[in-house]
Amino acid sequence: MITLMQKFIRSIFGDFFGKRKNLRIGLYGSPNGGKTTLANKICVDWLGEEMGSVSSVAHETREIQIKEQVTIKSKGKELSFNLVDTPGIATKIDYEDFIKVGMKENEAKNRAKEATKGVIDAIKWLDDMDVVVIVLDATKDPYTQVNITIIGNLQARDIPVLLVANKIDLKKADIKMIQSAFPQYDVVGISAKYGNNIDEFYESLFKISK
Amino acid sequence: MPHQCVRCNNMYDDGSSEILNGCNCGGKLFFYVKKEALEKKQQQLKLSIEEQQQIEKDVCDIIGVDKDDLEHPVVLDLETVQIIQSGKFHIDLVKLFNKKNPLVYKLEEGKYVIDLAESFKRDNDFKKAK
């Protein structure tokens, strides 16, 4: 209740004093959904530089990454926010999965430990978000425990959500499946890697961040 | 298939006379334990001292405290992050998302670490939200 009042007061008076804190937009989702690829796309488009490294090996992002003061423009409107890229949320992290892709045991165990810490941190940060963009891999089944738990919790916390069906450049991608899994949310199909449909994503970001 | 005495945890093979006559401790109730579950459990219990110490170190790294600063272990009947062995983690997302639950790491059967600072923070946040 207090938080809601604070948000309301801030939205009314914040602009008068020019102190309105920047909107915080968080990218959430399972590992390898393309959160960092999308973060990089946004940062390259509007800041001219990348945000973090990407990899085909899961749990590449293991720490919260923040890019401050990202300003995007669309149809004469402007939106400034702090972009928060979070580690992928998983229910099981096993170092043997990293060994299978050629990592040494110590390195793999360390990655698993850091990835676990990353999941905990990502969830801790959820309350600090004003808007959450959930990045889903459109080639995979959306009915997972991770997706359902994240979306259910965001709904309970009253945080605006935008669903992004990523990897639509791949043949196996199925946006309709995601739409039917979460019909109460807007779903934007994009390819963060190749920039397909990215303008519609920016438009949706404006709508959801009102 | 093995049976386990509810009272003293003793294991008995299928067809053992104790299952018919009662356990040596006097108990007459038994858990029916699936062989796969038992093997899995035995696998977990095979951790060496070094492996157990490594797991404790991993948890301390995750919660950001010095291992020597840890006080006596506290036992609770819930856990948020279960460590099967070093590098293998099971995360209970529902519990982790639930701010009412303290953040508990299960190191092995009966041994847990609780992130007190985070748990108090969660409790305060929860009260504020109310």
Please give a handful of descriptors for the protein shown.
heterodimer, A: 210 residues, alpha/beta, Rossmann fold, 6-stranded mixed beta sheet, B: alpha+beta, 4-stranded mixed beta sheet, 38% helix
In terms of topology, how is this protein built?
The complex is a heterodimer of chains A (210) and B (130).
Chain A: H1 2-13, E1 23-28, H2 35-46, E2 65-74, E3 77-85, E4 92-94, H3 95-100, H4 105-125, E5 131-137, H5 145-157, E6 161-166, H6 175-181, E7 187-189, H7 198-208
Chain B: E1 3-5, E2 11-12, H1 17-21, E3 30-32, H2 35-45, H3 49-63, E4 81-85, E5 88-91, H4 93-97, E6 103-108, E7 111-115, H5 116-129
Parallel strand pairs in B: 4-6
Antiparallel strand pairs in B: 1-2, 1-3, 4-5, 6-7
Can you tell me about this structure?
The complex is a heterodimer of chains A (210) and B (130). Chain A contains seven helices and seven strands. With 210 residues, chain A is α/β, with parallel strands linked by helices. Chain A has one domain: P-loop containing nucleotide triphosphate hydrolases (Rossmann fold), CATH 3.40.50. In chain A, strands 2-3-1-5-6-7 form a six-stranded mixed sheet, sandwiched between helices. In chain A, strand 6, helix 6 and strand 7 form a beta-alpha-beta unit. Residues 12-20 of chain A have low confidence and may be disordered. With 130 residues, chain B is of the alpha+beta class. Chain B folds into two domains: 3-45, no CATH class; 49-129, no CATH class. Chain B contains five helices and seven strands, in the order ββαβααββαββα. Chain B has helices at 17-21, 35-45, 49-63, 93-97, 116-129, and strands spanning 3-5, 11-12, 30-32, 81-85, 88-91, 103-108, 111-115. In chain B, the strands form two sheets. Chain B has a four-stranded mixed sheet with strand order 5-4-6-7. The longest helix of chain B has 15 residues, at 49-63. The model of chain B has no long low-confidence stretch (mean pLDDT 71). The chains are: A alpha/beta (210), B alpha+beta (130). At the A-B interface, strand 4, helix 4 and helix 5 of A face helix 3, strand 5, helix 4 and helix 5 of B. Strand 4 of chain A pairs antiparallel with strand 5 (88-91) of chain B, so a sheet runs across the interface.
